[in-house]
Amino acid sequence: MANLFDYLTWRGDLEFTISPLNPVDNVILCQLSYLPLDDIVPGPGEKNGISISLAAKMIREKLQSDSDFKSRLMYKDDPELINTLASSNRFGKCHLFGYVNHIDTDREVQFSAVCVHTNDGHCFVAFRGTDFTFVGWKEDFNMSFKEVIPAQIEAVNYLERMGSMIKGPLRLGGHSKGGNLAVYAASNCRKRIQKRITEIYSNDAPGFHKNVIASEGFEAIRDRVRSYVPQASVVGMLLEHGCDYTVIKSSQIGLLQHDLYSWEMTHNDMVQVDNITLGSRFVDKTLRDWIDSLDKEQREQFFDAMYSILSASEAKSLPELESSWFKAVSRIIKSFGNIDEYTRNLISKTLGELFNAARRNIDTLLKPDKNEQ
Question: Is the pTM above the cut of 0.85?
Fold first, then answer.
């Protein structure tokens, strides 16, 4: 059950000019994008970058001196990751630059990205997935009724801005929503930048509205998309993808397989399995049936209502909700009691449709796919 840390032990001494970037490196760079790099990595308007080694040193100092910094880390293994990368020949000298982290509650947008010079003539543009903020999750839900979300527009603008500053070929990647942003940006950027993109890595990312899949821009980059999902994928099964995916073995179960640290690695690739699990197929079919049973207006009203109720907690993120759980729950319950009858009935009916969809698809758990027999 080797993971990305084992890979760094095996390949950390080899620079990218000796051993070219592979799917495991993609996972590592996408995980790196989750680090809170504010006031550490220069933004798009600044000329100089910072090495991963120096960034790691600054992060260690912040962990010791800033009590709030640790709470901004999304994954408990992130400090070990940045330190391991910093001490490796493969990643230590790679430069980080162009970091952005933009959250706008009013526009319901959460967007973050960073560029990495991998010292092999390429630049890897890593888009962050959904963070702990409620607005980030709300933006994900908006994909169910919007053809385009604000973060996708920001991803295109970011790629075009950074692409005009960077020389040479580009690689794009992201995990979860970040993978969606990478593919969308590649599909919709100007052709002169699009032609420089060699690979687009999508790691357990949700798909798109059917109009995006049918677009000329998507068709132009389709064969450059490298899509990966764990065997019990949920997020990576959502919406339409328009290309095949590779199934990766995870050491976790269920939704926990979404965590990149759980994906199993070899010396230069990820451990592959033949198919997603029956449970993943069940969730996929259930959610698709549920979404199809609702029109666009019903989806929007339902998710707006749920977000409004959750926002009544006065917490802005999951950590904040956990830190004041009792008060938050009290406010949420009060908020639910104060909503109008129409909205209350909408929520009840919509959740009822979800249970009905699950009941209709229960046989998916009992009947293996023919390809699995």
Answer: yes
